[in-house]
Design brief:
The chain is α/β, with parallel strands linked by helices and 301 residues long. 46% of the residues lie in helices and 12% in strands. Strands 3-2-4-1-5-6 form a six-stranded mixed sheet, sandwiched between helices. Helix 11 (223-238) crosses helix 12 (253-260). The longest helix is centred in the N-terminal third of the chain and has 24 residues, at 80-103.
């Protein structure tokens, strides 16, 4: 193409002056520039679109930067105001949901922290003196650096997690407070693990019976057996004690959670949950920490 333009201009310029053919001026001045610059447009292969009779609106040069590829924009990116509105709606629903959960918390969770006023403690002491309740107790405080390393041999007490000094002291105070308050105790059932049985012994209870139904199973028993033990605990809660007596069950945190649900996930060592059996079911009356039983006894005098 460059050679063709040079031939045309070299032929036309001698024939006449540029004044007579002003339209040839661009061709005459462009040819030398095209020859010197060697524009990338002519140095590159001719685009296919040119061969078919049309040219693109803009042809890339040799030094042009490749276009940046952008990911397709979502609707929220295309409309930031809409995205902000959606975020505010989500925040509103979260706040409302938390408020509802706080306002309609289960009665079990509310009762856990509610038995601390003098009037409530006096009412609880009076109800327990009348009997007819089942008291579920998690064993007393234990050594946090011990574990049950021989769970298949429960006679090997040295391989179990046992009561620490605080747990033993509170267990004794627990029994003293129950007797001082004049609370009638009927049957006492405990886990086969020593920390549960020792809690009952130190409390001074009589006729203590250990049972596998209240023993911690964990990973050493099948899920079916764990479910059976949870059902057995619920059955004991629904069984009314002898008239004028209160039964006591001393067990473990996993057994309590499996039987009563997530509201007891924070049950502490030594904590008691007091239930009232009614028509084959059971109703939670209160939850009481082991160190609070002496206070209950003092109000009964």
């Amino acid at each position: 193409m460059v050679r063709l333009m040079r031939t045309i201009t070299s032929t036309l310029v001698p024939f006449s002056s540029l004044r007579q053919f002003p339209g040839l001026a661009p061709l005459v001045t462009a040819a030398p520039k095209l020859d010197r610059a060697r524009l990338s447009l002519w140095a590159r292969p001719v685009p296919r679109c040119v061969c078919f009779g049309f040219t693109p609106a803009r042809l890339p040069s040799l030094h042009a930067k490749p276009p940046r590829l952008r990911a397709p924009m979502s609707k929220s990116q295309a409309n930031p105001a809409r995205q902000s509105c959606i975020c505010l709606q989500m925040l509103f629903f979260i706040v409302v949901g938390l408020a509802l959960l706080a306002g309609v918390a289960p009665a079990s969770a509310q009762s856990a922290q509610g038995t601390n006023t003098t009037a409530e403690m006096e009412a609880l002491a009076q109800a327990l003196r009348a009997g007819g309740h089942v008291i579920v107790v998690r064993h007393g405080a234990t050594f946090s650096n011990q574990a049950d390393t021989d769970p298949f041999n429960l006679a090997n007490i040295d391989k179990q997690r046992n009561l620490n000094d605080k747990g033993k002291e509170l267990a004794r105070a627990f029994g003293v407070a129950i007797r001082a308050a004049g609370l009638p105790i009927g049957k006492v059932y405990t886990s086969q693990f020593n920390r549960a049985y020792e809690t009952a012994v130190l409390a001074g209870f009589k006729n203590i019976e250990t049972t596998v139904d209240l023993s911690e199973g964990g990973l050493v028993v099948t899920p079916d057996e764990n479910n059976r033990r949870a059902q057995a605990l619920r059955q004991r809660l629904a069984t009314a004690p002898n008239k004028g007596e209160n039964n006591i069950l001393i067990t473990h945190k996993p057994n309590i959670i499996d039987a009563l649900g997530k509201d007891w996930f924070d049950v502490r060592e030594g904590e008691a949950s007091i239930f009232k059996p009614e028509g084959g079911k059971y109703r939670l009356i209160a939850r009481l920490q082991m160190e609070d039983w002496p206070k209950l006894a003092s109000l009964s005098k």
